[in-house]
Each structure stands twice: as C-alpha cells, then as structure tokens.
Write a structure and sequence with these properties.
Nuclear Transport Factor 2, Chain: A; alpha+beta; 6 strands
C-alpha cells in the first residue's frame, strides 16, 4: 500500500511541477542540497564505493524504497532488493574496472517541507572486466525526503531513450556544421540541433 501511495505522490508531483505555487516554494538551498546528494552518488560510482550508496544516501526509515536501474529488467522494491543490488560482493572482485557518472541539468522541485522531486541527465561511462568500455546517456528522476541527516533518496529511476530516439540522435549527429548553419532559422518542423 505504501508503494501505491508513493507512486501517487510521484504522479501528483509531475502534475504540480509546472505550477507557479510549487516553483515558488523551491529554494536555492534545497536545489544545492539535492545536487550534493546526486553528485555524492556519482562520486561513489567513480571511486568504486557504490556498495555504500544504499546505506548512506537512502532514507533508512523508508519502508519501501524503489529503484529502477536502466540495466535491470524490473523495479527493485524494498530493502532486500536494494541491498542485493548494491551488495559489496557484486561491487568488489574487480567487477568494475572504472566508471564515471556525470549528472547534469538537475532540476529540483519541492513537493512539501520534507519531500522533493528531481530530474537530471546522466552521461555514464563504464569499463567492466573483460568487456570493452561503454558509454550512454540516460535520464533520471528521484524523490528525496528531508531527514535529520539531510536529504535522502526514497525513489530513483533511470530511463534510457527509446530505440527510435537513439536512431534520431545518431542521424542528427551526422549533420555537418555547414548544413546546420544553412538551415538555421528556415522554420518548419523541428530545429536541427
């Protein structure tokens, strides 16, 4: 039941997001605090200390944490699933040779005095043994609760682009700077990035 309530809060947050009342409640301090949590998580991936993420960056009082890692087939719901994902045995043993998680375009909006929702972009690079290095661009969203120890995750989801969006980006990346300049301002349709 708590999971249903949390999903309802997320849906409500999305609909309230664009309202001036919610935007007026946002403060630079909340923005900075949540950016710090997101960048802390990114740093733990880069330092290969990601086994500490669930313990340190999630609200331990949340009865039903929810996490959707883009590479997982489904949601990780509850502490057992979250702790299994961030298991030190999985993180160790040279599993990950190197990683970078760069968060950008972080947008934070307060829902109430102790809840906030954020969206951001991720540029993720990883080298696992013995595979070649890979990289991808993702979108993410999180719900954070303010605790006595600061803002903590209670919900987090990563969303890769659909295959058709990736193909569009690949086609767009092939457009020459000269052609972009030539068609700039012509109007009609989506602009060429």
């Amino acid at each position: 039941m708590r999971a249903v309530k949390l999903i309802a809060v997320l849906s409500m947050a999305a609909s309230l997001w664009a309202t001036a009342a919610v935007a007026a409640a946002d403060t630079p301090q909340v923005q900075k605090d949540i950016e710090t949590v997101i960048h802390d998580m990114a740093g733990r991936w880069a330092k290969n200390t990601w086994s500490t993420i669930a313990k340190d960056l999630w609200d331990p009082k949340e009865p039903t944490p929810m996490y959707l890692a883009e590479e997982e087939a489904g949601w990780l719901v509850g502490w057992d699933a979250l702790n299994q994902y961030f298991n030190p045995k999985r993180a160790g043993e040279g599993f990950m040779q190197a990683a970078e998680y760069n968060a950008s375009n972080i947008q934070v909006h307060t829902i109430s005095d102790d809840l906030a929702v954020a969206t951001w972009n991720i540029y993720w690079q990883m080298k696992m043994r013995p595979a070649p290095a890979i990289a991808e661009r993702l979108r993410a969203t999180g719900i954070f609760r303010k605790t006595s120890e600061g803002w903590k995750f209670i919900h987090y989801a990563e969303a890769p682009k659909s295959p058709s969006a990736y193909i569009t980006d690949l086609y767009n990346a092939q457009v020459s700077p000269e052609f972009r300049e030539r068609v700039k301002g012509m109007g009609g349709g989506r602009p060429v990035n």
